Amino acid sequence: MQPPSSPPPPPGGGYEPLRPDGSQAPTPQPGYAPHQRPGFAPPPAPALPPGYGLPPGAQYAPGYAPQGAPYGAYSVPPKKRPGAVTAIQIIMYVLAAIPLVFGLILTGLGLGVFFSYDFAESMDMENDRAVMLIFGAVILAVGLFHLWLGIRAGRPGKVFMWTLVVVSCIPIPFNLILMNPAGLGASIAVIALAVSGNGRLFYEGRWAPYYQL
């Protein structure tokens, strides 16, 4: 004769609690929470020390964002331009300042000659009253164009890079004829900075993927 089989153990691998008379209490249903004494609360979880998950004593380095941390001022790379682009802008602003000053002066004199016959006679230009005005306006337009080049040079653009090169090549023969080393050096510097090194990477859009217009 086989001995009677014992009842299967309760879920969880433990024993069912016994009643005062020695009988076993029914198995609690799923989702049942045991009754707790009034005022009883589980102890709070211990606070995690700084640098949790790292070796003892290790901390995050300054400026380092842990994985999963939101972007902040220390984790988003700043927008910046290479020094070559800044140098091109400065050269263009200098090249724009000279014709702007002379263009404004000549345009003002040309307006006086064009609208005042007495002033044209004093300037000995009564027969060609519009020449100085046209000449001053052309020089002023050249200065404004170089000013726009300096402003636009701070933004990426492959087409603009080659436009900058072509514009800088135009005055080279005149600077050679006039033996102007400053103008010749400025044109060569702009060309060299635009088509080589970080300048070319910037204008071709390969300098910084995070740089936004």
Automatic annotation (TrEMBL):
Residues in a coiled coil are none
Q: Where is this region: Disordered?
A: 1-48
Alphabetized, the UniProt keywords read:
Membrane, Transmembrane, Transmembrane helix
Composition bias (Pro residues) maps to 1-12
Q: Which residues cross the membrane?
A: 90-117, 129-147, 159-178, 184-203
Could you identify this protein by its name? Integral membrane protein
User: What organism, scientifically named, is this protein from?
Assistant: Nocardiopsis suaedae
Q: What is the lineage of its organism?
A: Bacteria, Bacillati, Actinomycetota, Actinomycetes, Streptosporangiales
